[in-house]
Description:
CATH class of the domain at 61-191: Mainly Alpha
Helix content: over 70%
Distance between the termini: 64 Å
Number of helices: 9
Structural class: mainly alpha
Amino acid sequence: MPKTGMEPLRRRALIDATISAIGERGALDVTMSQIAGRAGVSSALAHHYFGAKEELLQATMRHLLLELGADLKSALHQANTPRDRVSTVIAVNFSTHQFRAETVAAWLAFYVEAQKSPSMRRLFIVYARRLHSNLMSGLSALLPRADALAAAETIAAMIDGFYIRRALKDGPSDAVSAARLVENYVELRLAR
């Protein structure tokens, strides 16, 4: 029987262990038993809290989305201009916390899983819409609508692309270089 009050801590430990295991392996081919071992709980307890591995993976992706959303919300409160908003979205996506190797590997694994799993696809769509909306909150005041839409799409593709390249260990491996390249694109787009 699980100890009262421990569920939130153990759920978080299992989510952190999932990110760590995926980060180490670079794929979703980890077992509930391996994840549970990393979290310091039994496999039975992991199944008790999450049911199947798919549910744990969904909870992990939701957790990553919530962390990214919280980081963005906090940072966007400090943005004073539309241009600041765009830079803030870029900076948060390439922050030390978000651009960690294991987090990037987890995102890459989720990109792949979203092609096969309808529930993961829905979560990925939530992420993509939020990114687009956050970018448009700044770009729509800086560019005509069609240009703002194209710029938001390109910036989102660049962010996702740098995550993929980081996971594959190809291209800029540090967040500062990746953010600088995206910012260079924004400057070029605004200068047109």
